[in-house]
Specification:
The protein is mainly alpha-helical. It contains seven helices and three strands. The longest helix is centred in the middle third of the chain and has 15 residues. The termini are far apart.
Length: 191
């Protein structure tokens, strides 16, 4: 007897510099993705029997206003419960990009999720630029025992030349490649 393989679903959200002050902003993005994945009829309208706090995170003003960031652990737990519900029918990959731009309430949720991740058939993939001074929460997340940090190396000259050829046509970009390497240090974000 072999267990039937479960399908894998994914939910993705991204932090934004403009939304850093929106409490549970990125967590709300994740929830809306979960609702979309779980609901075939109207992904924007959470079921009436869901707790008010979860309905607020998913539906915003239509469900009674946004959940206040002061909801703290209770808010983080509500987000966790919906992710757990989404993971009941399939394995779940939770992706958060630009973690450095996430609001404080979402970062607290990420910490909460890391502590309880082993309870779920789920994986968490976080992407962030290196944290600078004043990012204690990012430091705490990166030091959590469940986190495996991978630092990407800069692109080499050949990779920069390949990107230039892909975008500008197949030619020799010798001196342009050298100037791009010097200006960007091989950081693909700047290319």
């Amino acid at each position: 007897d072999h267990p039937v393989p479960r399908s894998v679903g994914g939910v993705r959200a991204a932090g934004s510099e403009l939304e850093r002050e929106v409490g549970f902003g990125v967590a709300g993005q994740l929830l809306r993705e979960c609702v979309r994945a779980m609901s075939a009829e109207d992904p924007g309208d959470p079921p009436a029997d869901w707790p008010t706090g979860v309905r607020q995170l998913v539906g915003g003003a239509a469900a009674g206003g946004a959940l206040e960031p002061e909801a703290g652990l209770a808010g983080a737990h509500k987000v966790f419960l919906l992710l757990a519900t989404a993971a009941e029918s399939r394995e779940l990959l939770v992706v958060i990009d630009d973690l450095q731009w996430c609001d404080r309430a979402t970062l607290e949720f990420v910490q909460y999720l890391l502590h309880r991740l082993a309870e779920l058939p789920a994986s968490l993939l976080l992407a962030s630029r290196p944290a600078g001074a004043g990012h204690e929460m990012l430091d705490a997340i990166s030091l959590h025992p469940a986190v495996r940090e991978l630092r990407l190396a800069p692109l080499g000259r050949e990779a920069v030349a390949s990107l230039l050829s892909e975008e500008l046509g197949d030619r020799d970009f010798g001196s342009l490649t050298d100037r791009c390497m010097a200006a960007t240090g091989g950081n693909p974000f700047y290319l």
